[in-house]
Each structure stands twice: as structure tokens, then as C-alpha cells.
Amino acid sequence: MNFFDEIKRFYLTFCFYVGVVMTLISPGTWIWKCFGERKGKVRLINRDLICDWKTLIDEGKSFQPLDQFTTTLSPFVPLFLIDNPRQWKSRRDLFRYGNPHLDQRIDQLTFDVPLPSHKGDYLWIIFPIVFRYSFELIFQRKISEDEFNRIYPGLVDINRMLKRISSRPNEIYRSNFYKEILRLINDKSDGFLFVQNENFYHLNEIDQVSSVGEDFLTTLSVQCTDLVCHLLILYSDYENEFRMNFDRCFDETLRLYPLTDIWVRQSKDKKNNWIGSLVQLNRNGWTKPDDFCPQRWSNKTIDHPPLLSWGFDIRRCPAQQIATKLTKKLFLSFVDPEHFWICKAKNFHHERTFPYGCQLWIDYGIKPRHAQQWIYPNQFQMKVKRWFHEKIRMIDQYEFN
Ligand code: HEM
After folding, report:
1. Does pLDDT of 389 surpass 70?
2. How many domains is the chain built from?
3. Could you tell me the residue range of the domain that residue 332 belongs to?
4. Going by CA atoms, what residue is nearest to atom 35 of ligand 1?
5. CA of 178 to the centre of ligand 1 (A)
């Protein structure tokens, strides 16, 4: 590589990090802003940035997990799987076993909890509702209030870090979460998802807890809540499109707001490790890439890149089917009641993560004429808080290693 290429690499890496550290947008979005429709790979100092889906697919299958850099720059669940190369296969096997059971259980569940009338952040209203359903799916019974009080604060603590509302874990909440999940596993109740699965009980204690508590309970609750929130925000602007064809809107929502921001993988064949931004990969090569345009999914013959929001290779999301089913059922149960109306705050900027919450006004009956004008308070304080926690978190997790 010649001298000028080296300089270019340093310059691009510098721009990337400065943007990540200084701006208030996620790394994946920053990559989209910097590199846009570029094709092929961009060489950074220690990684190759993959810019388009063809180059990504050409990388081929990789067994390698996401690495720590991913959680640091863009917190992502499931947490333990990301850099745990030892156990991921056995835990994926558990998924293969759990998936059809969960799929059946979702069909049997009644989704009858309406959203309360409220003007403000719905994320923390929807989260406990989804958590209760997720618990029911895993243990096939409703959660008791005592159990809720021991588990839920730990889950909120995890989600607050993912949303950059805090940057350090609350050890008491996390420890209660751990102990309660362990107790439930050891109870071996009839409805427990893995009670008949010997392989599950051969895992170490920490892997058992992490599998149930993180891979299933946390991930179901966090990911499905986020996706429902994205759908609700878009529904407030595109109600007709949603009513006409929900499936297209669902894919388009995931294209614009993938739940993962960036991927960082060790490459196979001793090539450079690579980094990819789902925000960019899902826009690069699409017409009107930033617009919500569900019609683009209507004609299968139109040539457009694939939707990458569920991953693309051997490590792609094993829960796509159940996550889709659960999210759709939840969402439809929320918007179906008669006279339901929804309006997002005028000053709310829809982002992939929810650093400012999910600011909606939802009610039933006649929509007031001034509804579009409502604004949510404390926006500036939220921005400062977000910046602070995001940066503390990066330093705390040795992102600069
Ligand atoms: C709701 C929407 C969801 C989306 C968009 C999504 C997306 C993804 C993506 C992009 C990956 C990374 C794939 C890769 O590295 O190539 C992933 C991995 C994973 N997801 Fe999902 N996911 C969702 C929901 C869930 C849910 C509800 C669960 C659990 C019940 C789950 C369990 C997992 C697991 C275990 C992995 C790690 C797979 C591995 O490392 O082999 N996901 N998901």
C-alpha cells in the first residue's frame, strides 16, 4: 500500500471516530452520512468498512461472533452471545428447540392489554406489557407480582443502558434478576420451555441463566418493544398505508430502523476484520433511501437489495419468525380498538434507538384538532444526558482498545 493510501486510511478512521464521539447520532447513521452510496470496501486502520450488500455477501459465511466493539458502539442484545465463541452453538441449538414451542405458545396467547391514554413516552409503558407476555411465553403462566418486582427492575436497568439513559449497571437489580431466573430454572415447572430438554441442564449455570434471561426474556422484551414503538411512530404518519398492507410497512420499518446499528466481525481467511452499518446497508442501492415507502415491497420483480435487518449468514437472527409473529400480534392488538388515535410529538425526531423515548399521544375517541401541535418537554436535558451516557459507556467498555 502506498503512502497516500495510508494517509487516506488514517484520515477516514479519524473522521469516523470523531463523528462517533462528538455527534449525537448512532455510529451506523454516521457511516451512512459519511459514506452514503459508496460501493465496495473502505479501508480503515484496523477494519474494512463494507459499504454495499453485494460486497457483504461476498464475504461469505462467518461463524465468528460480533465482537465487543459492537456492544460498545451500539449496544445490542443478546448480550452474552456477542463475544462468547464457546457457547454460541449450543445456545443456538436451544433456539432451534425453543422456537417451535414459542411459535405455538404465541398462537395460544390472548393479546388483550390495551394501551392506556397518555401523552408522553410510551416506551416504558409498552416495555412491561411485552415483558409480561414474554415471561408467559417462556414459563406458560402469568408472572406473579413478587416475581415481577424481582425481575423487571434488572431488565429496565439493561434497557436503560441500551437506550443511553444510564451508563453503569445497578448491581443489586442485576443480581436479583439473575437469582430469580435461576430459581425459576431450578423450579422445573411443567410449563418451562426447557424442562424436557436435557442439553439445557448440561449447560453451566451462567449459560442457563443467560440463555433464559438474556437470549429469550430480555431479547424478546427489548427487541419486540422497540419494534412495536417504531411501528407506532410510523403508524402515526402512515395510518392508511398500514391499514392497506401491514406486511409491507413492517419490512419498510425494519429497513429504515433496523434494530442493530453496526456489525463488527472477525473475518475468515485472515482477511481484515470488517465493520458494516445496517443503517447504511439497508439504504445503499435503494431508490429514495431515506423515505418510508412501503410500495417498494409490492412488486417482487422490482430489483432492489435484500433486507438485511435480520442478518445475512450463519449467525443471522434465529428468532425472525417468532419475533415477527409476536410483534405483529402486539402491534395489531394496540391499534385495533375502536376510536384509537395516535399522534407523535411535533418536536420528536424518530431515531433507531430511543434516546428520547417514544413520544406519542395516544387516546380513544375524537382526535383534538390541535393534536399535531403537542411537544414533549425537556428535550435539551435529554440530549445532554444521552451524550454523556453514550460517551461514558464507550470509555467504560474500553472501546478504544
Ligand atoms: C424483533 C426484531 C429482531 C431483529 C430485527 C433481530 C435482528 C438480529 C440481528 C441483525 C442479529 C445479528 C445477526 C448477525 O450477526 O448476522 C440477531 C442475532 C440474534 N438474535 Fe435477533 N432480532 C430480533 C429479535 C430477536 C428476538 C426476539 C430474539 C430472541 C427471542 C432474538 C435472538 C437473537 C439471537 C440469539 C441472536 C444471536 C445469533 C448468533 O449469535 O448466532 N432476536 N438478531
Report:
1. yes
2. 1
3. 3-396
4. 215
5. 21
Q: What is the pTM of this model?
A: 0.92
Q: Is 341 within a domain?
A: yes
Residue 401 lies in a domain: no
Residues 6+ apart with CB under 8 A from 91: 81, 203, 207, 211, 215
What CATH number does the domain containing 287 carry? 1.10.630.10
With beta carbons less than 8 A apart as the criterion, state whether 347 and 316 touch: no
Who's near 223: CB < 8 A, 6+ residues apart? 77, 259, 323
Q: pLDDT (tens digit, 9 = 90+) per residue, 146-194?
A: 999 999 999 999 898 888 787 778 889 999 999 999 999 999 999 999 9
Average pLDDT over residues 359-374: 95
> What distance in Å separates the CA atoms of residue 45 and residue 221, rounded to the nearest whole number?
37
Amino acid sitting at position 225: T
Residues within 6 Å of ligand 1 by CB: 65-66, 78, 81, 88, 92, 95, 215-216, 219-220, 223-224, 227, 254, 259-260, 263, 309-311, 313, 315-319, 323, 327
- pLDDT of residue 391 exceeding 80, the answer is no
Cα–ligand 1 centroid distance for 316 (angstroms): 7
CA-322 nearest atom, ligand 1: 27
